[in-house]
Write a structure and sequence with these properties.
- By secondary structure, this protein is α+β, with helices and mostly antiparallel strands.
- The protein has two domains: 94 residues, no CATH class; 150 residues, DNA integrity scanning protein, DisA, N-terminal domain (YojJ-like (1), CATH 3.40.1700.10.
- The chain is built from ten helices and seven strands.
- The protein has a seven-stranded mixed sheet, sandwiched between helices.
- Helix 6 runs antiparallel to helix 10.
- The longest helix is centred in the N-terminal third of the chain and has 31 residues.
- The radius of gyration is 27 Å and the shape is elongated.
C-alpha cells in the first residue's frame, strides 16, 4: 500500500463527506473515545506487567499492539476491532495477575490511609512483622516450629487435636508456644486471619517414599497438611534452624529469609483472605 493510500484511509476516517453535522460530531466523539480507551487500557496493562516483572508478557503485548496498529494503518480494519483485541488482552492479563492487582490496590489504599491518618503501620503489616520476627528468632536459636496459615479450611480433627488459643498474634506469644519446655511446642500452630486460633495440633504426615530420609516430622507434617488442604505452612528446623515454606504438598522455598517470609504472608493476607480478621 502506498503512502497516498494510507493518507486516504485517514482522510476517509476523519473527513465524513456527505453526512450531516450530527453524524460527523458523533463520529468524531466515537473516534476520540476509542483512542482514549486504547490509551488507558494500554497504560493499565503495561503497568500491571511492569509491576509484576513480566518482560516476556510485555514484549508479547507490545508486539501484538504494534501488529494490529500497523494492520489498522495499512488496511481497512475497523478501529473497533483493535479496541476489542486490546480489551481481550487486558482481560487475559487481569485474569492472570488478579492477585497482584488486588494486592496493589489494597496497598495503595493503605498508603492513602497512612497519609490521611498519619498511621505508621497497618494491622496486617504489624501481624506480618511480628510473625517474621518470631520465626527468625526461633531460627537463630534452633527452636523447631510449624505454623499453618489457614482459611478455616482445615479438617475439624486437626483443630480438635490441639488447644484453641484464639489470641492476638505477637512474636512473644509465638515464641512462647514453641519454647521447648512448652506443652504445645511439638504440635502445629494454626493462624486464621489476625488470630492464633489453635496450637499443639497434630497434622497428617506425608508418607511418600521419595521424601529424603533426613526430612523430619515437622516437614512431613507440613507436606501432609498442604496436600489435604489449600494452606501454607512455615517450618523451622529444630536441627539446623533452616526456615522452609511449604505449599501444595511441596517445599516451595528452602532457606527462606525475611523477604521470602513476608512474601508468603502477604500472599496469605492479601489474596487468601477477604479481610484482616476473620475471627
Amino acid at each position: 500500500m502506498s503512502f497516498k493510500e494510507i493518507a486516504d484511509n485517514f482522510i476517509d476516517m476523519w473527513v465524513l463527506e456527505g453526512k450531516g453535522a450530527d453524524a460527523v460530531a458523533l463520529a468524531y466523539v466515537s473516534y476520540v473515545l476509542q483512542f482514549l480507551m486504547l490509551a488507558v487500557l494500554f497504560y493499565l496493562v503495561f503497568k500491571v506487567l511492569k509491576t509484576n516483572k513480566a518482560p516476556t508478557f510485555i514484549a508479547v503485548f507490545v508486539f501484538f499492539v504494534i501488529l494490529f496498529g500497523l494492520a489498522f494503518v495499512f488496511s481497512d480494519m475497523d478501529s473497533q476491532i483493535l479496541l476489542i483485541v486490546i480489551i481481550l488482552m487486558a482481560i487475559l492479563v487481569f485474569t492472570m495477575f488478579h492477585t497482584e492487582i488486588k494486592r496493589s490496590l489494597l496497598d495503595s489504599n493503605v498508603k492513602k490511609s497512612k497519609q490521611q491518618q498519619s498511621a505508621t503501620v497497618t494491622g496486617v503489616e504489624l501481624i506480618i512483622d511480628e510473625t517474621v520476627r518470631a520465626v527468625q528468632n526461633m531460627s537463630k536459636k534452633d527452636v523447631g516450629a510449624l505454623i499453618v496459615l489457614s482459611n478455616e479450611n482445615l479438617p475439624e480433627g486437626i483443630i480438635e487435636s490441639g488447644t484453641v488459643v484464639d489470641a492476638k498474634i505477637t512474636s512473644q506469644l509465638i515464641e512462647s508456644i514453641f519454647y521447648p519446655k512448652s506443652t504445645l511446642h511439638d504440635g502445629a500452630m494454626i493462624i486464621e486471619g489476625s488470630k492464633i486460633y489453635a496450637a499443639g495440633c497434630f497434622l497428617p504426615l506425608a508418607q511418600s517414599e521419595k521424601l529424603p530420609k533426613d526430612m523430619g516430622s515437622r516437614h512431613r507434617a507440613a507436606l501432609g497438611v498442604t496436600t489435604v488442604a489449600s494452606v501454607t505452612a512455615i517450618v523451622v528446623s529444630e536441627e539446623t534452624g533452616i526456615i522452609s515454606i511449604v505449599k501444595n504438598g511441596a517445599v516451595k522455598k528452602k532457606y527462606a529469609d525475611a523477604s521470602d517470609l513476608k512474601n508468603a504472608l502477604s500472599d496469605y493476607y492479601w489474596s487468601d483472605l477477604t479481610a484482616e480478621g476473620k475471627r
